[in-house]
Amino acid sequence: MLRLNFRNCRLTSTPYRNYIYTNAVRTKLHLTNLELGDLSKSGRINEARQLFDKMPERDEFTWNTMIVAYSTSGRLSDAEKLFRRNPMKNTISWNALISGHCKYGSEDEALSLFWEMQFEGRSFNEYTLGSVLRMCASLGLLLRGEQIHGCIVKTGFDLDVNVVNGLLAMYATCRRISEAEYLFETMHGERNNVTWTSMLTGYSRNGFAYKAIECFRDMRREGKESNQFTFPSVLTACGAVSALRVGVQVHGCIVKSGFKSNIFVQSAVIAMYAKCRDLETARALLQDMEVDDVVSWNSMVVECVREGLKEEALSLFGRMHERDMKIDEFTIPSVLNCFASSRSSEMKIASSVHCLIVKTGYGTHKLVNNALVDMYAKRGLMDSAVKVFERMVEKDVISWTALITGNGSYEEALKLFCKMRGEGGISPDQIVTASVLSASAELTLLEFGQQVHGNYIKSGFPASLSVDNSLVTMYTKCGSLEDANAVFNSMEIKDLITWTALIVGYAKNGKAKDSLESYKLMIDNHITPDYITFIGLLFACSHAGLIEEAEHYFDSMRTVYRITPGPEHYACMIDLYGRSGDFRKLEELLNQMEVEPDATVWKAILAASRKHGNIANGERAAKTLMELEPNNAVPYVLLSNMYSAAGRQEEAANVRRLMKTRNINKEPGCSWVEGKGIVHSFMSEDRKHPRMVEIYSKVDEMMLLIKEAGYIPDMSFALHDLDKEGKELGLAYHSEKLAVAFGLLAVPSGAPIRIIKNLRVCGDCHSAMKYISRVYLRHIILRDSNCFHHFRDGNCSCGDYW
């Protein structure tokens, strides 16, 4: 038997006391750490800090617990201070602070800490990399992500499936699908559910719907189970391309997998059916939901608006309100879209929705205010749109775009654009750039359009088809075909709008041959023409006298492309027959018209009748126009001129008296010319311009020189109640001639003189411009209400085909 001799056992020895003390301290520290952890996890951070400060002993767990608490709650400054004081920094300490900065978007601080960690020789792990990669993905920091990718390869973490998943998600989120695909195809080891879901989601979010669907099928073949993140992504892809059959199959997988009751998956299923236009199934699923989910209801509202079912969208919105569902900032913009182009009677409902926005506090939300501005602007209620806009505390490019694009006045739109760039300090995006270029085109402001083009190039935005199309249109409408061609040739992708813009542009600028040639190239590129394309083609043929070609294109509309000709097409053909003097074919076509002849058709008949002195047809066309457009002075003026030219002065006087009796005033002719960024306008015999003395002196010089060159004034375009000298002076001071005189004074030699006129240029001014271009050796570009006239060396691009 073993016997212990307690007499010799010294319980109070120093080593034993130290052992007991150390264990007691450790036990107390452990208990205090547990209490510190409980306080931190429950969000009582200040109490945790008080306990931390009172602790006589601290270990790695103590320091890390407090740093994690500060970082996860967003108190990054406190976390940083404590981190710097920490004498026991380890990987967990670094990860905690880096993750906190990543979570709250402090990119510079997070990445600085990441590089500092390596500089100090600290080893990061998969959690460190996961944090910084997620931040790069959420903030779109592609370059930073690529740098971290290099670091991952150097340290061998590219063999870690979780790290590769983070890289794949980062590239996919940053729209670099090819890099994500490469990682997916070449990764070591077995792909897990996260890998497949990341790749599928990347395809879906970046517009590769069919690849997303294929990826989902491959995932199923590999035996990988889908989850609540996989299903919404593939359903979004199905909705994007209206792949209803595939969507139904995915729905079946969801039911079998047990995710039928998951609210996020349910919302995605409803959205898929709605986007595939199966609204009946979407409605049924919406009604069967156990919990009213605002996202699902929003999806239904959005799709009803998109399908033009505005009444149903409003009904759904009303039911959401009745069910006391929490209407959010995504619901309201969808509802406001219902009123953007609806009947005026529904404006009361729109006003009610606006009141609801104010009552619910969403009047401070930028997304909602942007939708309000857009709705009011599209309805033409600019005062209301401006009021909402001016009350906005924070404005972004969408706010300005809504106001600019919805503005019915092109001049106001350009003023707002300048204000956005100046006072707002906001750079334009592709949408507002395309809109402003369109406004520049309508106002023929080439210099302004060129500045917008230059700024867009400097902005570094990727190529945009809508912007490029607007540029081609703007340059053709400003008569700058060289620039239009340069943009067109630089475009990697060209659609129907691109080709049509060039075809119509050539036609309007008197380049019929180039217009028809472009059409042939378009067909060779397998682009199918539309209604507008044929207007451009027939216009080109009309102004070049190409009767056979026009008849071929006109017939092919119906026989080849099944396009029913409209009034514009008939007007071009009638104009062509009328200009050539073939009134027999003109009458045949007029009688064969499938649509009622509109004012455009009768104006073409009237112009042709005036050209060939066909009084009978002229009278019929003029009288019809007087009925169709009672306030239009054109038929009265042209008929009066026809009578005068035929020597029937009494009848001409009767028409003028009738015009006066009916209180119809002729629209005054006005011409504009741009010089050094300023638009100068002129009326006939205008004397308001500050340089008018110089201008009139230049006109006198100009008229003298062109008369010596052979110009003879055409008195048929002068006022009838003046003598010969008065008529001649009146013609000399037409707005076009004043504008070109100013151009000769202000526009540098060698640069084209660009003139815009609100009406068609008169025959006398047209003749004078040819002589002016030859005498002064200038290129004069005159855009009237019908087309462009390029005057060079005494010739005009229209070929005098009047």
Automatic annotation (TrEMBL):
Keyword check for NAD: no
Pfam families, A to Z: DYW_deaminase (PF14432), E_motif (PF20431), PPR (PF01535), PPR_2 (PF13041)
The DYW domain, residue ranges: 710-802
Cited InterPro entries: DYW_dom (IPR032867), E_motif (IPR046848), PPR_At4g14850-like_plant (IPR046960), PPR_rpt (IPR002885), TPR-like_helical_dom_sf (IPR011990)
Keywords: Repeat
Cross-referenced PROSITE patterns: PPR
Residue spans of the PPR repeats: 59-89, 90-124, 192-226, 293-327, 365-399, 495-529
Family: Belongs to the PPR family. PCMP-H subfamily.
Full protein name: DYW domain-containing protein
Origin species: Eruca vesicaria subsp. sativa (Garden rocket)
